[in-house]
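Predict the 3D structure for this chain.
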Amino acid sequence: MVRNILYAKAYARDRYKLELETLQLTDIPGVIPQLPQLCAGLGIRNLVLVRCAPPDSLFWYESPGGARVLTWSSKGYNQASTYGAHLDVATMRKRGLVERLADAAKSGVPPLFYYGSDQWLPPPNLAPAVRAWNAEASKQQQLVITTPTAYFRAMRAAGVADKAPVMRGELPSTWPYLEPAHAHVSRWDAVATRALDAAERLSTLAWLHAGRPYPRAELEQVWKSLLLARDHNYGGQGAGGGHPRKFAERRAVQHRAQVLASQAMAALAERVEAPRESVPIVVFNTLNWNRSDVVHAHVSSYSAAGADWRKRDVIPWGSAMVLRGPDGQPVPFQITAGRRETLGEPDFALGEMDLAFVARDVPGLGYASYTLEPATSAEDAATKAKWAVGRPRAVQRVWFEAESPDLVLENGAVRVTIERGTGLVKLTSLRGKAAVVVDGLGLTGRQELSEVCRRPPLGLSVDDPAREKIEPFVPAASDAVRMLADGPVLTSAAVRGSVLGAPAELRYTLHRDLPWVDVEVRIDWDLRRFGRIELAYQVPLKNARAAYGLPFGAGAFGTDQLMPGSGPVEGDEGSRASWERTREICRWLDIADNTRGVTMATSHRWTRVDDAEGAAAVRCCLVRGGRMRPLDPAMDGPDPRAGLVFNFRFYPHGNSWQAARIPRIGWEATQSLLAYTVNDTWSQKSLPRRQSLATVATRGGKGDALLTCLKQAEDGKGVIARWYESTGSPCQVQIATAPLSGKPERVDLQEQPLQNEKKSVIATDGAVPTRAWEIVTVRAK
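Done. Predicted structure below.
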C-alpha cells in the first residue's frame, strides 16, 4: 500500500502538478486499524470508505498509535446513482433524495454522494440533472458536483470536521471467501510479494557491501507489475480476461524477484572466505533478528571424465562428506535427493544433490557460511554416531496387531500423532509438562447451500454452518499414512486421501531441535466444483483468546475490537454472524490462555474461530468453488484442474503472544532462509564466514520492532529502513548501515524530513525510540 500511494502521488505530481491528499477505497470491503497512521505518513489528509464502516457518516478514524484521518463512509459505492442523480428530478424525488437531504440538514453534516463504480464514468446527463434539481430545490437542499478533496476542505472550513466524532477499531473484510474462491490465482500474491521483498533487501545489502549497482529501474518496474496484478476485480466486469493476466503477472514477478535475489546473493557469497577444497553454502537471513531454521540447498559438482573421474571431484564420488558451520564444527545434514551421477558426458560428469540442515543463529540482515568438505572414515563414523542422539524420529510402538492404529513423530519439543483410520492429527508440546495443543487437525469439506449454487456470486460471502453438510476427509484405501523421510535433520510423514472428491495430501515435518511442526497441504482441485475445503483443528484451552497478525500491527477476536456501528451492508457481503468470527489474518494466528498457547503461521489469510466446548475451533478456508463466472477454455485453459499447495507452521509456546514474540514466528514461517551455493573458492575473499551486513535491532523495552522495508532511497542518496512496533509496547531500536557514514535521520513514509525537527534527530549511538504500534522510517545517507 505504501508503494501504491507513493507511485500514485509521484505520477499526479509529475503529470498534473497535483498533490494528492485523499485516499478513496472504492469497493474495498475492509480496513486495517493502522490505516490512519499510514495516511498521516504519506501526506493523506482524507479518507473515503464505501463498505463496512458506519454508513453515511463523517468521523475521525484513529489508529492505535493516535494518528487520525478525516473519513467519510458512504453506504455503498455509486450512491449518487442510487438516488437517480444521472436521470431526472422526478426520479431523484421518487428515490428519496428529498428526505435524505432533510436528515442531513438536521444532523449538520452534508453528505458526500459518490458516483461511479469499478470502471464506470459519470454519464453526460449527470450535470444537467443536477442543474435541474438545484433550480427547483431549496437553499438547504442544493447539490454540488465536486471532488472528495474539495468536500473535505469544505467540511474543515465550515467547522463541521471539528465536531466529527472519533472512531477506532478494525473493519474486517465483509467478503470472507474472496481469496479461497480464486485460490489458484490469489495465493500467488503472497508468494510474489515475499520474494520481491527479499530481493529488494538483498539488492540493498549487495549495493552497500559488494559494490553491485542497485537495480532501481527493474525493482520499480517489478513492484508496479505486482501492484497492477492486485486489483480487486475478482469476478466483476472484465474479470474473465483479468484472471489469466493476474496469474501470469504474479508468476513473472516471483521469477524476476528470484533472479534479482540470486544475483545479489552471488555478489556477496562469492566474496565469503572458504577452504579451497570445499563446496560453500552461504545462508542469508533477510529479517532483522538472528534466527534458526531449516535450510534446503542444492549442490552441483563437475569433474573431469576418464577412468578415474569419480575420484577427481572436490568430494570424490561415493566418499564421506562433512558439513561444517561458520565456526568450523561439523553440522548434521541430510541428503533429501541424491543425483551425483546424473549426467555422464565424454569430457565431464555432472552430479547434483539436495540437502537439508538447520542453520543456527544466522545474523539478522546477514549471512552464515557452511562448507561441504571431504571427511575421513573415522570422522564420518563419529559425526553420524553423534547425530543419532537427539534426532527427530518416528516412534516405534509395540502393538498386538501388525500395525499400530497411529503413527507418531517427535523431536524432543513436539509430538505429532497421526491416526491412521481418519487421517486426523494431534500435536503435543513436550516442553515442560506434556500437553496437547492441537487436536483433530485435518481437512474437511463443506457442501454449498442451494442458494449459493443457484447464484454463484454469493460464493464470495454466504455461509450458514447450521445448515451446511460437512464431509470428512477420506483416507486412501491403501498406504494412506506413509513415511516420506527419516534422518538426522528431519522426519516427515504424509496422509493421502480425498475431500469433496478432490485428491489431497497433508505432509507433517519435524526438524532437529526446532520447536514447531511444518504442515504442507496439497489439493488437486477441479475449478468447476462447488464446495469448500478447510483445514480445521481445535485448541483444547478453556477461556482461550485469539489474536492474529495484521499489516503493521495485530488484531484480536471480539466485537469490542470492531469499530462501533460497522458491519456488512451490501447484498454480496457475508452475514454479520460470519463477519464477526472471520478474519483476514496476516502471517499468524495465536490461540492462548494465561499460561500457554499455540500459533499457526501461514501465508494463507481467511480464518474463522468459533467457541467449542472447552476449546477454540479454527477453520481455514483454503478453497471455495462458488464461481463468479463459467469456465472459459480460451482464458482458463482446457484443463479445469489446479494443483494447489498451502503451508502452515504450528508453534506451541508459553506465556502471552507478546512475550513469546509471536509476530516473529509469522515472519519466519513465510520468509525462509535463503541458500546460495558458491562456485569459486580460489579467488581472493574479503568477507568473514558469518556477519550482519546491517543492523535494525530491538535493544531495549518490552516491544519488538519488525523491519518491513530496506531499500535504496527514492532519490538514490542513502538507504531507507522502515519498521513497526509489533506487540503494543515501546522499545528502543538500534540502526546501523555501514559503510554509509552519514548520520541517520527520521523521515516520513514519503522519505521527507519530519515537520517537527526534534523528532527527526536520532541519538549519537543510533538508538531510535519507538512507541507502541508506531511505524518508523529512517534514512541513512
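The chain has five domains: 2-167, 180-269, 279-389+673-677, 393-660, 694-780.
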